[in-house]
Amino acid sequence: MTLAEDLLAEGEPEREFDPGIAGRLPRKRVAGGALIRDRGGRVLFVVPGYKPFLDIPGGVADANESPLAACRREIREEIGLDLPVNRLLVVDWIPAHGVWPDGIMFIFDGGQLDKDQAAALKPTDDELKGLRFLAYDDAVPLLRPSMARRVRAALDALDDDRPHYAEFGRCSSTTRRADVGGAGHGPAAARTSTNGDGASSALAPARRQKSAGRNAG
Prior knowledge:
By secondary structure, the protein is α/β, with parallel strands linked by helices. It has helices at 3-10, 21-24, 67-79, 115-120, 136-139, 145-160, 173-180, 210-215; strands at residues 29-37, 43-48, 58-60, 88-94, 103-112, 128-134, 164-167.
């Protein structure tokens, strides 16, 4: 069924038990990003032109747009690929930081690109300066700490074959202790061998705000 058919089957919207309460409820940012790898297991990062940190492809969802739909749209806009993104890897709550309110960030499995796809990849969004394929350990110094934790959680989710819930990139008290101590954890830590760089890319719209959407903190 389509979304429109589901909404029709849902019946009339629930009435406000307190007039005006719907407009007073808190709003959260929502964003969807993709963990895309090459055949060597390196992760694809975009190089924004407006901040010093790398990101994964993706961005903030528009009004009434799902996180998955936002992720697919942003991939098309940023790197020109229509990938079969579907599998959820991470749901991460991000606290308010500076002018940015709290939000919920989703990471989906973007799959692996073959050698020819990876070699031909280039940015299709003028907000991006380039694209880079990096092993996790090589990427960490170039990421916000919370994004590094989020990517690690996504890599672990691939190995665990189940989605992970995180808060500011931290999945559990065990993970928190490991990160504070500076030690890697889980199977993803073993996949951080260095293989050099790859291609180059760009970010898109509130999309103009999506960097904060993914990296607040």
